Amino acid sequence: MRRFIEKSIEKIFAACGMITTVTILLIIVFLFKEGAGLFNSPEVEKGYALCVNAANPIEYISAPDVKKIYNSAITNWSELVGYDEYDINIVLFRDDNKDIFEYYDDEELGDDFDEIEANIPKKVLELIASTPGMLAFVREENLKKNAKGIKVLNKGTVSSDNFFFGHEWIPTATPAPQFGILPLILGTLWVSLVAILIATPLGIGVAIYLSELAQSKVRDILKPAIELLAGIPSVVYGFFGLVVLVPMVQKTLGLPVGETAFTASVILAIMALPTIITVAEDAIRSTPRAMREASLALGATHWQTIYKVVIPYAASGISAAVVLGIGRAIGETMVALMVTGNAAVIPKTLFAPVRTIPATIAAELGEAPGGGVHYQALFVLGCVLFLITLAISITAELISKRQHNKGL
Amino acid sequence: MKKILLTTILSVASILTAQTITGSDTVLPLSQQEAESYMKAHKNAKVTVTGGGSGVGISALIDGTTEIAQSSRKIKFDEKKKVQDKGSKVIEVIIAYDALAVVVNPKNKVSNLTREQLEGIFTGKITNWKEVGGDDLKIVAYSRETSSGTYEFFKEEVLKKKDYMAGIQSMPATGTIVQSVSQTPGAIGYIGLAYLDKKVKAISVSYDEGKTFVPPSVKTAKDETYPIVRPLIYYYTDKSESAVKPFIDYVLSAAGQKIVSDIGFITIK
Q1: A381 and A283 share a domain?
Q2: CA of B151: which chain A residue's CA is closest?
Q3: Do A170 and B137 count as a contact with CB atoms less than 8 A apart?
Q4: Which of A19, A25, A398, B221 could disulfide-link to B99, CB 3.0 to 4.6 Å?
Q5: B49 pLDDT tier (thresholds 50, 70, 90)
């Protein structure tokens, strides 16, 4: 009977382990599966096509160029075609049942609503065929019928080049959304890097103080206090940052805006501290007593022992602590969302707004049409973030393994 | 036994009349109030309201996991097509209007702006307040998140479909825009009329190139002199029309519209 119970408990534990592993794997598979379709998705909004007059020599317009045209940064076809033969101003048209009324009055379109509805596709095609400079954004279902005098431009797919190295993240621009994630990646790394630069010396200092210098009474108060820091919800940190730190940074540094990479870094540093302190302190305390005593016996002072024996011995543990702290800072969402200002620009200074990957996903996923290009782009962003944190965890693992091998 | 059977049947019946509303966080407080008072008036009706964003609501409508999608933007063509592919038709009902107020820091001298100036500021062509008659101060433009319905509407209506400048600050919620504008001297942002308070100053907007400037208020939005007004919409499909009709009729009734104005939105005429 006892053996049976023991056996079944073993089985239950094994099953728990299996379930956890499978769940994690499924989440990862889901993440990559949802993002996978992105590079096959069309650059322009689904269900629409870009059309020009048949006389126009152009075959394909890239997404960044389409955006420039719609923002009036490119106004003449010769800028795109490259030679002066087609020196005609670009006329924009959108097939969303509004623009058409600027060209035709009600009489031409028909009397009642249904008639207008039925007439619009025909009139749209007529309009494009008769306007040489027109760039039209047309519903695909309106195109099928016949297309005399009209050229449908080739549809590009979202290119990985534009995605990973693009400088603009404007996911809802119509008709050509811009998915350049470079500012987001750099923003995330920038904020985390500075956070860790602030947190590392502080964290290691506190860890050394706690494990080597502090009296046990002070330790008994300080240690739980630091652990409490880890338990504060991140939204509370974010709120504190927005209401207290943001105006403070803005006033003391005389900046036009207080939501900056620096503000976020300070808060993330505070949030990464408990991780760094706890792990580093454990590493320092695990220095064998024999080594300390040997050092002291050789005549070294307490301080010499700390920086010549204890810290070198615990070095890999301390590095692992720092790497784990980076991981904490990179994945932090709520604080980044509230205090970075969320401006998707490539960071050039510490005192300007940035936008991070987790904040982008959190802010946009709720409103992105399910299964669309924007939705897929956010999932690929998730994959990128996952790979970054995976690399960090592996590094931490490798570093702390080295410590065990080195043992006495 | 009979009693148990009866209650089971009753609860099953009430599940049948139960309905869910999902979507825009802007419309959420309104829908919640409407649902509460509707359930008070109709004892066996059950309406569940959740938020998540306009996109979430419309996705749920496509998947058939909600009866009504609440939205602060028009349904996209792609989304409409997905519903049609499943064999049903989308029906749109405007339940209220929301005016957007352009706000600046109370210390800012500027109190009138034209649409063209707003376009210049939010697309990054105007970068200093002295260009629009204010102090020599850098303009810090705050926007909502790229995928919020408010963001889309402001872009369509005020920027005439041009894109915001690349480096615009985007905030996750209207509350944070109010907070940031109130503590940043050079700030400008846009918020729903219901969020307007003393911490920020509302700008009078002109859509006729500076001839008349109209301050945002429920009154000016109602008499159509204030231009930046957007509809708040319920979407449902023709398949669930009979189930959702009583609730929607209630929202459009005098009692329902009173809740609309209590919350700070503008009633439909």
Answers
A1: yes
A2: A172
A3: no
A4: B221
A5: very high
